[in-house]
Specification:
By secondary structure, the chain is α/β, with parallel strands linked by helices. It is built from 11 helices and 8 strands. Helices cover 37% and strands 18% of the residues.
Length: 295
């Protein structure tokens, strides 16, 4: 199936219907995260679980989130572009044993709408705040990966009274122009066709997918994240990354760690960007003491 389908409205609608029939109902547990391969995902269909799912309106978009477990609240934020709540499944499974887990599909991902605002980290932080207004009055811990970690940085800076601590996985200093983004659906769908078929079936606005990629590319190409944001974060932050993270290179992670006033550092040896998918035990062993310590 190629991108040409998107130019044929009738065929496109029929295509989405067929995929929907295979994704929902009895086959709901067949959802996968991006480039999952033969790895085992959580048995919980995070990001598409009707029994745990809710919506909240945040400015111009409906944001989808799920709630699991009981205890002190932890917000789980997945990665960007190809990210999904399911990729965070093992973390959510473990956290929900002792915490209330609030798993959010950030705008434009999964069941959350795109809206018409720039999907900036300021806006995504505002979306998280809208979810929290519905779920809890307590301070939260945020566990974010990549895009979700950057959202966590901005949330901590914008809403210091609502956050207890932050675990930021794979998110370093971001210098404008350090990478060039020119993304499109055709390229990404070729990397994992089944993942994208499933995601297109659950997204509320699948026909806007190329607009979404274009908007994200423009935003990322003009983004700069440095001490002006990171230096204002007051809560404790565990800055974590894989030693061989290709998206947040080692030196950018160290730079972010040095900019954040109350930061701890954890580097997972020989691990790439999604360190928790490659070496969950090491990631969890680093996170647990941080989550359990008193500020």
């Amino acid at each position: 199936m190629t991108i040409k389908v998107f130019k044929q409205k009738t065929i496109f609608s029929f295509f989405i219907l067929l995929i929907s029939l295979s994704v929902f109902g009895q086959d709901i547990k067949g959802l996968r995260y991006f480039m999952q391969g033969n790895a085992t995902a959580s048995s919980v269909p995070y990001g598409n679980n009707q029994s745990a799912g809710h919506y909240v309106k945040s400015d111009d978009a409906k944001i989808y989130y799920e709630v699991y477990g009981k205890g002190s609240p932890v917000v789980v934020l997945h990665g960007g572009i190809v990210g999904s709540s399911l990729e965070m499944g093992q973390l959510s499974d473990s956290l929900s044993q002792k915490h209330q887990v609030i798993s959010i599909s950030t705008r434009g991902h999964g069941r959350s709408e795109m809206g018409n605002k720039i999907p900036s980290y300021e806006q995504k932080a505002k979306d998280v705040n809208a979810v929290l207004d519905k779920v809890t009055k307590e301070k939260v811990t945020i566990v974010g990966f990549s895009d979700g970690a950057y959202t966590g940085y901005f949330f901590a800076e914008q809403y210091p009274d609502r956050i207890e601590k932050l675990v930021a996985i794979g998110a370093g200093e971001w210098k404008k122009g350090f990478r060039e983004f020119n993304m499109d659906y055709k390229s990404f769908s070729a990397m994992d066709e089944l993942f994208w078929k499933q995601q297109m079936a659950i997204r509320p606005e699948p026909k806007r997918i190329d607009e979404w990629f274009s908007t994200l590319s423009s935003y990322y190409n003009n983004l700069n994240i440095d001490k002006t944001i990171l230096g204002k974060i007051k809560c404790p932050v565990l800055v974590m990354a894989g030693e061989k993270d290709q998206n947040a290179p080692f030196d950018t992670v160290i730079a972010a760690y040095k900019m954040i006033p109350n930061a701890q550092l954890s580097i997972i040896p020989n691990a790439p960007h999604p360190a928790f998918l490659v070496n969950f035990d090491a990631v969890w062993a680093s996170m647990k003491p941080f989550l359990n310590q008193n500020n």
